[in-house]
Amino acid sequence: MRRWFVGRLQLGVAIFMLGTLILTACGTSSGDKTATAGGGVKPTTAASGAPGGAATTAPTTGAAVATTASTTAAASTTANATARPAGTTPAGSAIAPSGTAPAASLPSGTTAASSAPAPTTAPPPPKPVPQPVTSGLGSEAKPITMYFVPSEQVDKLTLSGKQVAADLEKLTGLKFKTAVPTSYGAVIESMGSGDADVAWLATFAYLIAHQKYGVNVGLTTTRNGLDTYKGEIIARADSGINDIKGCNGKTVAWTDAASTSGYVFPSALFASQGVKPGKELFAGGHPQAVLAVYQGTADCAGTFYSPNNPDGTPADSRASQLKTYPDILQKVKIVGFTPDIPNDTISFRKDFPKELQDRIVNAMLYYASQPESKQPLNDVGSITGFVRSDDSRYQVVRDSLNALGKKPEDFFK
Question: Does a structural domain hold residue 17?
């Protein structure tokens, strides 16, 4: 009897242990499936961004830029990816198709992209050793002339430009003289005449200057690690305009005829979607175009878009008026975007000495990595850094124009 009882007890223990193992295996399998189903990496989206430039008279919008946006939309409507080295252009998730309003516009008029990706840039070059010159270009008697296009408020741009020049003098030992002419066109012509040695040129202004006068790009700006940006179309929040088609027949403010984000790309976008403004005007710059919409002078405007700063504060063109008009984000909203555009440049006139260009480029790369540069570069154009560059970076814009049988100078006469 005892032997029978022991045998039954051992059998019961074995059955219990086997059942436990089976239940444990099933639970692990179920957990793995749950983790696989719910643990996939969700895609993130971010927009790209920065300013473009300007001139005097408007070519006929529809005929001049017919389908630039449609020829580049397939590859350009996506936003920049959330993490990438500056100086590259990846495919990313689109914040919205070109010409459409942000997918989740907030009441304040800010976009769904709440912040820019963290920049990932190459280490800066070593601190330059100042090498003053006693005669010739860069000396006290013949300073290097550095011009800024009027893409920001001129008084602020003048002060920040002088600060950048003063800091460059300390780093290089060279002497600089700065100026902010009244238009992008004036800066371009100054590069051609030799009055300007160096210019902070917007994308399209650079293309024109390169085409007409052999101007060479040395640096492309970055904003929060991104080397491309978009144009944006804005309207008053109470206007009833919710996309770019709402601008049809309305008064539209452009920044300048040589502005990539403030005229060329948005007017191409209008033409590609059959939008014909009833009246067009050139405001003279990005802050002025924003103000024209805010004050009701224009129903819509084309200007530049940059993604929000890492702290969530806005960095698109409306931010330039925040101090003066604190409610501008509530009163003016974004209703559409252009395809991606390469960022603006620091460019050098033809025949500018290469040795001096290299010194300035290296100094700017080092300068952008230093805390003291943060405020001046932000005031110049929300700039957070630079990458070395050459003309090939801007071929994408020419390709869009070539598809139309156009050249940069066709837009600026």
Answer: no
Count the Cβ atoms, other than its own, within 10 Å of residue 201: 30
Question: HSE on the CB side for 366, CA within 13 Å?
Answer: 17
Domain enclosing residue 412, as ranges? 49-81+93-413
116-384-84 Cα angle (round to 5): 50
Residue 43 domain-assigned (yes or no): no
The span from the CA of 132 to the CA of 126, in Å, is 18
Domain of 101, CATH number, reads 3.40.190.10
- Whether 291 contacts 263, CB under 8 Å: no
Q: Which helix (H) or strand (E) holds 28?
A: helix 2-38
For residues 334 and 208, the answer to whether their CB atoms sit within 8 Å is no
For the full predicted model, state whether its pTM sits above 0.85: no
What pLDDT score was predicted for residue 258? 77
Report how far residue 294's alpha carbon sits from residue 389's, in angstroms, rounded to the nearest whole number.
36
- Contact assessment for residue 387 and residue 187, using Cβ atoms and an 8 Å cutoff: no
Q: Give average pLDDT by consecutive 10-residue segment, the chain, 413 residues.
A: 48 49 43 36 34 38 37 34 35 38 38 38 81 96 95 86 97 97 92 97 92 96 91 97 97 90 89 93 94 98 90 90 95 94 96 97 96 94 93 88 68 60
- Total domains in the fold of the chain: 1
